[in-house]
Write a structure and sequence with these properties.
By secondary structure, the protein is mainly α.
């Protein structure tokens, strides 16, 4: 009724399809499921959680640094594109402010 090569190819096709489906799930971030259809969860270790906390803190620090650098770049762009007379006026105003604060300290 059935040829043995046909059965072998049919089983190979089913197993290959199952393997391809699981590989697709892993590649695209879907959870891997057990035989009952429930997602399998990896056991977390304390070392992993400590590493995650460290990386989150480092990420926040890097975001703060990037924001500060962005502010500095904006200031430099403003200095580079402003008219020289306006820049000179701002520098003179800051110098006058500095002189006033030095006079208050000297009194």
């Amino acid at each position: 009724m059935f040829d043995l090569p046909f059965v072998f190819v049919f089983i190979l096709f089913i197993v290959g399809g199952w393997y391809a489906l699981e590989a697709y799930k892993v590649k695209h971030g879907y959870p891997i499921t057990g035989d009952d259809g429930e997602p399998l969860h990896r056991q977390s270790r304390p070392e992993d959680e400590a590493e995650i906390r460290r990386l989150k803190a480092e990420n926040e620090d890097l975001h703060e640094r990037l924001n500060r650098i962005g502010d500095r770049v904006a200031t430099l762009e403003r200095i580079a594109t402003d008219k020289p007379s306006r820049l000179a006026a701002e520098i003179d105003a800051l110098a006058a402010l500095s002189d006033q604060s030095e006079e208050k300290v000297a009194r």
